[in-house]
């Protein structure tokens, strides 16, 4: 990239500072008459850093803004405000050549592999498309394809020229989608619920592939999920998100062993137990998710939190450092 700078090994590969993203919401007749333009805040003043070779989990309920964060980090959508930096370079300073180089270095692993693979294309054409778009020299294509299939453990898959996506099982199809993301040998991937659409019996195989590939390539990765098993297995560090804000962050093992935020405790309590006849206390959470158009004042979780008090309604809790690499946004901690 033209603006690329030399950084130390401790500098983050990906960094977001005060990142905000708001989407226009449908307008009612009252909104039209009064000139209001309602907006949903999917990401509100978020700060995160992903180091080289680090795997970061982003955990939370559906609709909390996780996918929006991933799309922002990959420059698929533009932020409303705030800064994004990749390898020390602000996304807003990317030239056309910079953006092309960024596309080679950062890739997306879709939740639904059909989102990544055109059903009218053969597998070979689908796998080759990123190489063409990134303007990789044709003489490199065959070797890159071989490596990508090897990394996704698809070396036995032959006759790519005559095979289509609908002819594969779900596990094979997700491996092809992963190979497509890896064919450019990226440095950073965002994987959005990469195993949620697969049978339990094949999830372990995909998770193993992801873990091995990350170790082999030294990938930085953001894993977006509501699946605690995936986060525990793949992620060194985890951020918990609720209604557009981060509420807790820390080393994954410690966050699971001793959750600090009431919402994180509720997520962990909601994980089904495989132990027979094990009694479990009711999930410590109240009501449903508030309207994202009109989030509660103060702490956004307060209406569902059994520990909330008057301060929680009047003051927004900052995501503060509580030691040992842990951060939490809660007045009660």
What does this structure look like?
The chain has 333 residues and is an alpha/beta fold. It has a domain of 152 residues: 3-Layer(aba) Sandwich (Rossmann fold). 31% of the residues lie in helices and 22% in strands. An eight-stranded mixed beta sheet has the order 6-7-8-3-9-10-12-11, with helices on both faces. A four-stranded antiparallel beta sheet has the order 2-1-4-5, with helices on one face. Helix 4 runs parallel beside helix 6, helix 5 crosses helix 6 and helix 6 runs parallel beside helix 7. The protein is globular and about 65 Å long.
Helix and strand pattern: EHEEHEEHEHHHEHEHEEHHHEE
Task: Specify the helix fraction band.
Answer: 25-40%
How confident is the prediction overall: mean pLDDT? 87
> Number of DSSP strands?
12
Distance between the termini: 43 Å
The CATH architecture designation of the domain at 54-75 and 96-225 is 3-Layer(aba) Sandwich
Full CATH superfamily name of the domain at 54-75 and 96-225 = P-loop containing nucleotide triphosphate hydrolases
Catalogue the unreliable spans.
1-9
Radius of gyration: 21 Å
What is the CATH class designation of the domain at 54-75 and 96-225? Answer: Alpha Beta
Task: Set down the secondary structure blueprint.
Blueprint lengths: L11 E13 L4 H6 L4 E13 L3 E5 L6 H8 L7 E6 L2 E2 L5 H10 E4 L13 H11 L7 H11 L18 H13 L5 E5 L7 H18 L2 E6 L2 H7 L2 E6 L2 E7 H6 L4 H8 L40 H5 L5 E4 L2 E3 L5
Helix pairs in contact: 4-6, 5-6, 6-7
């Amino acid at each position: 990239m033209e603006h690329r700078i030399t950084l130390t090994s401790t500098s983050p590969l990906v960094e977001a500072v005060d990142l905000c993203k708001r989407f226009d919401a449908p307008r009612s007749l009252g909104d039209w008459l009064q000139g209001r333009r309602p907006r949903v805040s999917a990401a509100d003043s978020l700060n995160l850093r992903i180091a080289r070779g680090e795997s970061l989990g982003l955990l939370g309920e559906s609709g909390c803004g996780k996918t929006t964060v991933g799309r922002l980090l990959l420059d698929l959508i533009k932020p409303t405000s705030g800064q994004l930096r990749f390898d020390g370079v602000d996304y807003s300073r990317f030239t056309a050549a910079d953006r092309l180089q960024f596309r080679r270095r950062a890739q997306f692993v879709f939740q639904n592999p059909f989102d990544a693979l055109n059903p009218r294309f053969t597998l070979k054409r689908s796998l080759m498309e990123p190489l063409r778009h990134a303007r990789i020299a044709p003489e490199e294509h065959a070797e890159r394809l071989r490596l990508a299939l090897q990394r996704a453990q698809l070396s036995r898959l032959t006759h790519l020229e005559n095979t289509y996506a609908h002819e594969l099982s779900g596990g094979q199809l997700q491996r092809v989608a992963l190979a497509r993301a890896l064919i450019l040998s990226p440095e950073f991937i965002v994987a959005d619920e990469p195993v949620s659409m697969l049978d339990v019996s094949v999830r372990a195989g995909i998770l193993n592939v992801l873990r091995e590939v990350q170790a082999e390539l030294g990938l930085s990765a953001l894993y977006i999920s509501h699946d605690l098993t995936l986060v525990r297995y793949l992620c060194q560090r985890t951020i918990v998100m609720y209604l557009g804000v981060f509420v807790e962050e820390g080393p994954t093992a410690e966050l699971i062993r001793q959750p600090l935020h009431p919402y994180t405790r509720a997520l962990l309590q909601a994980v089904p137990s495989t132990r027979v006849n094990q009694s479990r206390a009711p999930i410590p959470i109240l009501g449903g998710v508030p309207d994202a158009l009109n989030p509660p004042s103060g702490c956004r979780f307060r209406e569902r939190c059994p520990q909330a008090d008057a301060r929680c309604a009047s003051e927004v809790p900052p995501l503060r450092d509580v030691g040992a690499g842990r951060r939490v946004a809660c007045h009660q901690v």
